[in-house]
Structures are given as C-alpha cells and as structure tokens.
C-alpha cells in the first residue's frame, strides 16, 4: 500500500512522511490531524494507548481536541452522543467489555443519525477474563446500525480513520462509523507507515463540518432529539436507517477512490489476493489475512491455485462483491476469531453462505473454523492447515466437518495440577487475640488488639508467588487489613492489578474462595453471593460456619466505573465489606488518570507539557460519598499506621457480620507509576497522611472520629514533603506551577478543616 516519495508529485499526490508506528499511534495521528472537537473516553486494554497518545500530543500543543475522561465506557458513549447531537466532530476508542458496557448507546446514536468515529481495538469478551485480541467484541457490534470498516495494518488504521469521518458525514449516510483492528497484533506492533505531512491535506479531504443537520446548537432553532415513536413511525425510521447503511457501501467506494488519488493507497471493498483464478481460498478478517498471503505464494509455487479474501468493510456486508469473488472457487474456509455459540458456524460464515444463496450457479463448499481466541497467535503453519482443509473438501466434493474449532487441545487427566498449598480455613485464621465489643453507652465498638508481632502467626490470605511489581503496596495493605479479620473470608476481586497478578490460570495465589467480576459490577455480584449463601443456609441446603466474612476488593480506579454498583449495594444493606485500595490511577491498564487522581498529578492521560500541567480537577472523595449512604461503618487506613488499620479491620468485620455494609479505603503505593523508589513506600504513605491529604478517620453509625491527628502529634507537614518522593508530582514543586500547588494545598486544607469540624460535632 506504500508509495515511493519521488512518485508523489508525478501522480498529483500530497506529500507524506514515512515512519514506523503502531495501529494505536496511527489512530491517534489521524484524530489529531482531523482535530476533532470532542473525545469522550475511558481506558481499557488494548485501546487505551489511543487516548494516551492524544493526551501527550495535547500537552505538546499539537491538537485542540477536548479530551473528556468518563467514569466508564457507558459514560464515554453518552459524552460522545451528546457532543455529536450538538454538531461537534466526535471520536472515541474502546475494546471488548468496554464496547459491551456502552452497547445500548450505540443503536441510539445510529437510530438518530449522528455521525462520529470510534476505533474498536478488538479483544476477547469472555469469562474468565482474557485481555488479548480476538473478534468476539466486534461481532456484538454487527447489529448496532453502525458502519464497520476493518483495518489489517497500522497504515490501514490511519487511512480508514480519515475515510471513516468523510463517510460518516456524507449526506446519504449520516451514521456513526467503527474502525476495527486487531488488539495487540495491529494495535501495538510497529510497521512501516506513511502519513500526510500537512494536516491541512487531511482536513481539506474531509471537508467542512456539516451544519445543515438538526443539531442542538442554536436556541433560536429548538429541536427535539429522540422523541418517543410508535411502531408505524419506528418502522419508517429503521427503513431510512437501513437504506443509509446500504448507501454507506457505495459511499465507501467513492471515498476510497478519492483517497487513493490523494495517498496512492487503494482500499477496495474486498482485499483480494491472487483470487483471479483461485480454486481454494481463505476468508479472513484483519491481521490474519496478511499472515496467510505468504502461504498463498508458497502454494502457488506448488501449483495450487490459492487465494485470500479480506473485507475492508463488513457493515454493510459486501454480499455482491463476495459472490463475484467466489464464482470459480471450489472450497472456501472462513476463519473467525469469535463464535456464534450453537449456530454451527460464526457470524460471517453465515453471511457468506447467505450471499452465495443468491447465486444459484455457485457450488462453493464453505467451511468454518473458529481460531485465535483470546489472542492465540496465527502463524503461517496455521494458514497451511486451513488450506489443507479447504483442499480436502475440494477434492472430496464436500466438507467432512463444515464447522469446528481449530487450535483447541484436549486435557490430560494424568497431568492435572495438584494444589501447592493445603487449603486453610476456619480455626487456622482465628487467633482469639482480637476482642471487639459494643460500648452500650457510646454506641461505638471497643477493639483490643495484641502487639502486631502476636498476629504474625496468622497465615497470610494470599500466597507468595503473585506477579505484582516490586514495591507494590496492594498486598501489604490488604494483608495488614486481613490481620484484623478472624475466621474464613470469601473475596471478590474486581478487575485490577490485585486480581490480574494473583490469578494467572491455571494458578491462583488465593488461599480461600475468590470470585472475579468486572469493574462496574463487583459489589452487586458479591451482594448476590452473600444473599445466596444466607438463603441456602436458611433452607438447610449447606452447612457452614456462621462467621464467614464477605469482602469485595476494588482498586485501580474501580470506584469510578463501579461507583453505581457500590452505592446500590450499600443502600440495600447487604452484610459485606467493600474495600478500596487507592493507588490514584488506572494502574492495571497503564497508569491512566482516575477520578481518584489528585489535581496536577501526572498520569499517562494527564501529561505534563507546555500547555498542560497534569490532571485539571480535584480528586473524588469516595469515603464521604459512601458515608452519605448511611452505612454503619466507613473508614480510611494506611499500611504506614498498622495498629490503626488492624483495629479498623476488626471493626469492619463486626459491622459486616452483625449490622450491614462497610466501606473502607486504603492508600496504596505504586512505585512504577508514581515514579518513586521502592524503599520510600512507608515514607510516602506517612507523608500523605501527615500532610492531611489522606487523613485517617472512621465514620461509625454516622459519627466521625479522626483516629490519627498529625497536628496533635506535631507531625503535620506540607504536601510538598509528600510530593518530593514521587516523579509524578515533582513538576508541581517548580515555580511556574505554583498556582496549581496552591490550589491543591487549599483543597487539602478545606477538606481537613471540614473533617475536624465533623470530628468535633457528632451531628455533622
């Protein structure tokens, strides 16, 4: 697809720059050159880098896109829809579960006909969780009403992002467009690419932003968007939407032709490799098609007439072009990175078969093989195997097995893994050294704990051998909290570093029962577990101890996307503990900005540059938010103050077993992303507490008590004492950033004074 620079002027093409970049980098490059108005986003691997690259470019002043960090993908879709309805040019990027979380928004945007472009960096949607690339997310998008382009290479990602907006805004289309490319294959692998040297070339190609739609932009011209429709009207609406989607197929051809003249790169509806006289062929989406082309050359050298078909657009589905391409093909194998469970073949296989039904003379034998799930690599040897299957069907005149999985391995009972650690439960986790009693006069719990050394005999809840980074504070903080918990626990870990580093199948670091669910639904999931446990016990269907404690562990920004679930769980009054480890960012996806990130702090999506100085707004006070639900016990804790944390763990257990839900927040160090030295972990936490940024307190039955007051201990320090240990905050110590530092200090002081007032007045 590349073209030599010396041919550009000769063929009337725009000047281009050659470099080596990944698909994510090229998606960001295209967006920056287009200079969209708005990007609503939420980080999820492997699409996260797109927002990161745009943030870095924004910090350098290379575009003017307003980057809006959402509370979750559903929120990001809402931001984008609202902006599109206002007539802004809008951009987004997501993957996998992120797409599914926002998916109810996608038909809304398509049905009301507001253009935008979203990059879908494809990734497995699965249980258990897998974060590598297949097409199971893409297939969920097929029925949303969006135009869907597919990009096999980083070059195609750049080019199709430019073409996508022109298609989306065309008067005959006016629909949102997805550009889908393979996660970790295309998204992260660097390839030789070209991009236009002058962004004005891109902007002139796309044209002016349309203004003649019914947008929410002029109070003098009021509009109603999305009015409720009855069946007759909705039928008409969907007919028009359907027609527009089919028009998009023709407009794609027009735009691709125009783009070829500008760039020298052609994107036909189908990428056909040596299909002119092919007798056997593979139908593959995206990067796998590129891997199969070398195999075609090898087979051709052996006299086999082989070819590869890969569509550049799958919505609308190119049925006519497929019929033409398969006129003389005797056997076609459709390889799919996702299944349509129970349908005897995945989605595109059935669409290919359906297309061929309209050609009564076509005798092509169609096979389907599910491959490459969860990012399983696809090599040239695999393409050889696919062609062998197609050749076998061609020679026999039928497919012995039309549908099957490829690459699955039968288990061997003799090689079953044996537990490394003998299961521990019950009395093993009981020391009898912790005493918790309710003071009838004060209506507060009194807790007596032994010297910490006496609790060292209590086994750890999480075994050694996990994959956390050196210096990670998560497990030190969690284990210290668990020292205050007597007896058995059942934990739910939301997605995040704590989950990923302890559960790499087939191994687990958890000594007691652990369940995982996604960021946005952990608290609700555990509430279902608690209630089922209680109901089964009430009916006499299980016989277990009464003192099991249920704990949900969240972190890495999980109280952003998971806040709604947590509040709902709190309001319902389930007997469980919600424990947040706060490392001030989305660390499991690469240190992106969270709502828990303090103002001015640097993350991969709140960079520091000449026009940007870190995060632009203050951190969310999740402790006070959860306290507002009137649950019986809320607290903060830190590993740097162990006695305080162990006591709060004991209180948390008592309330969760006897009264109702508990919420706790632990400040946790993250040396990798805080850019701090491992050895300073305790010092950093102490400074955060002593600066009053992270005060230690509890709210028991609605009454606030500060459990450690640095002012009374004469240990109060400036926040700069905390900042000096971390690379993510050192820029705030510079004179030019003094206004941000002063704003941060003022906010810390305001929250501290408010907390002291609550401590002094039980009614607050």
From TrEMBL:
Which GO molecular function annotations are given, in alphabetical order?
A: 4 iron, 4 sulfur cluster binding; oxidoreductase activity; thiamine pyrophosphate binding
Which InterPro entries does this chain map to?
A: PFOR_II, Pyruvate:ferred/Flavod_OxRd, Pyrv_Fd/Flavodoxin_OxRdtase_N, THDP-binding, TPP_enzyme_TPP-bd, Transketo_C/PFOR_II
Instruction: Show where the Thiamine pyrophosphate enzyme TPP-binding domain sits.
Output: 495-653
**Gene Ontology biological process terms from the UniProt entry:** response to oxidative stress
Keyword Oxidoreductase on entry? yes
Per UniProt, residues of the Pyruvate:ferredoxin oxidoreductase core domain are: 278-382
Pfam families, per this entry?
A: PFOR_II, POR_N, TPP_enzyme_C
> Which UniProt keyword terms apply here?
4Fe-4S, Electron transport, Iron, Iron-sulfur, Metal-binding, Oxidoreductase, Pyruvate, Transport
The Pyruvate flavodoxin/ferredoxin oxidoreductase pyrimidine binding domain sits at: 30-255
Indicate the family of this protein. Answer: Belongs to the pyruvate:ferredoxin/flavodoxin oxidoreductase family.
What is the name listed in the Swiss-Prot or TrEMBL entry for this protein? Pyruvate synthase
The organism named in the record is Neobacillus thermocopriae
């Amino acid at each position: 697809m590349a073209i030599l620079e010396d041919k550009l002027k000769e063929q009337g093409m725009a000047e281009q720059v050659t470099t080596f970049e990944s698909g994510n980098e090229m998606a960001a490059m295209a967006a920056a050159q287009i200079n969209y108005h708005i990007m609503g986003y939420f980080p999820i691997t492997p699409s996260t880098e797109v927002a990161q690259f745009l943030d870095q470019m924004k910090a350098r002043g290379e575009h003017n896109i307003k980057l809006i960090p959402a509370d979750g993908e559903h929120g990001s879709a809402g931001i984008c829809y609202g902006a599109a309805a206002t007539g802004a040019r809008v951009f987004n990027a997501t993957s996998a579960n992120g797409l599914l979380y926002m998916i109810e928004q996608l038909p809304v945007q398509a049905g009301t006909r507001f253009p935008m472009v979203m990059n879908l960096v494809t990734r497995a949607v699965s249980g258990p969780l897998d974060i590598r690339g297949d097409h199971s997310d893409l297939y969920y998008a097929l029925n949303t009403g969006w135009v869907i382009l597919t990009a096999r290479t980083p070059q195609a990602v750049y080019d199709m992002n430019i073409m996508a907006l022109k298609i989306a805004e065309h008067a005959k289309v006016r629909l949102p467009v997805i550009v889908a490319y393979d996660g970790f294959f295309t998204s992260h692998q660097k390839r030789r690419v070209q991009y236009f040297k002058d962004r004005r070339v891109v902007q002139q190609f796309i044209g002016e932003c349309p203004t003649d739609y019914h947008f929410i932009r002029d109070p003098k011209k009021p509009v109603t968007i999305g009015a409720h429709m009855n069946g007759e009207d909705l039928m008409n609406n969907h007919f028009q939407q359907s027609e527009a989607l089919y028009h998009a197929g023709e407009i794609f051809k027009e735009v691709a032709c125009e783009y070829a003249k500008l760039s020298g790169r052609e994107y036909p509806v189908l990428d056909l490799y040596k299909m002119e006289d092919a007798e056997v062929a593979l139908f593959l989406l995206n990067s796998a098609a590129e891997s199969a082309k070398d195999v075609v050359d090898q087979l051709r050298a052996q006299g086999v007439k082989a070819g590869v078909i890969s569509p550049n657009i799958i919505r609308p589905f190119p049925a006519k072009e497929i019929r033409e391409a398969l006129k003389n093909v005797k056997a076609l194998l459709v390889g799919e990175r996702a299944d349509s469970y129970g349908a005897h073949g995945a989605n595109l296989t059935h669409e290919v078969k359906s297309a061929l039904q309209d050609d009564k003379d076509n005798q092509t034998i169609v096979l389907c093989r599910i491959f490459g799930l969860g990012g399983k690599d696809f090599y040239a040897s695999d393409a050889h195997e696919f062609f062998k299957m197609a050749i076998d069907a061609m020679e026999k005149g039928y497919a012995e097995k039309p549908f099957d999985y490829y690459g699955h391995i039968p288990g061997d009972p003799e090689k079953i893994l044996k537990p490394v650690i003998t299961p521990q439960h019950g009395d093993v986790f009981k020391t009898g050294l912790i005493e918790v009693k309710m003071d009838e006069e004060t209506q507060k719990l009194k807790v007596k704990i032994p010297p910490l050394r006496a609790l060292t005999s209590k086994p750890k809840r999480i075994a050694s051998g996990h994959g956390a980074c050196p210096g990670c504070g998560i497990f030190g903080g969690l284990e210290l909290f668990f020292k205050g918990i007597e007896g058995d626990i059942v934990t739910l870990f939301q997605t995040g570093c704590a989950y990923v580093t302890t559960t790499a199948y087939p191994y687990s670091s958890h000594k007691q029962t652990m369940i995982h669910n996604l960021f946005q639904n952990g608290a609700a999931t555990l509430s279902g577990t608690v209630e089922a446990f209680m109901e089964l016990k009430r009916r006499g269907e299980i016989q277990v101890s009464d003192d099991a404690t249920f704990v949900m562990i969240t972190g890495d920004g999980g109280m952003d996307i998971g806040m709604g679930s947590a509040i709902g769980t709190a309001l319902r009054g389930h007997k469980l503990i919600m424990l947040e480890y706060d490392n001030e960012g989305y660390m499991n996806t690469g240190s992106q900005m969270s709502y828990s990130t303090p103002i001015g702090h640097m993350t991969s999506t709140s960079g520091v540059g000449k026009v940007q100085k870190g995060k632009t707004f203050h951190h969310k006070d999740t402790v006070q938010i959860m306290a507002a639900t009137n649950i019986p016990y809320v607290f903060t804790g830190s590993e740097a103050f162990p006695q305080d944390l162990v006591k709060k763990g004991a209180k948390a257990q008592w309330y969760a077993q006897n009264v109702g839900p508990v919420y706790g927040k632990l400040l946790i160090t993250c040396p990798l992303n805080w850019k701090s030295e491992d050895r300073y972990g305790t010092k950093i936490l102490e400074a955060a507490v002593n600066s009053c940024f992270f005060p230690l307190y509890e709210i028991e039955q609605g009454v606030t008590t500060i459990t450690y007051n640095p002012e009374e201990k004469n240990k109060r320090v400036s926040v700069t004492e905390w900042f000096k240990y971390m690379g993510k905050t050192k820029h705030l110590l510079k004179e030019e950033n003094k206004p941000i530092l002063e704003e941060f200090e003022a906010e810390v002081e305001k929250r501290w004074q408010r907390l002291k007032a609550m401590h002094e007045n039980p009614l607050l």
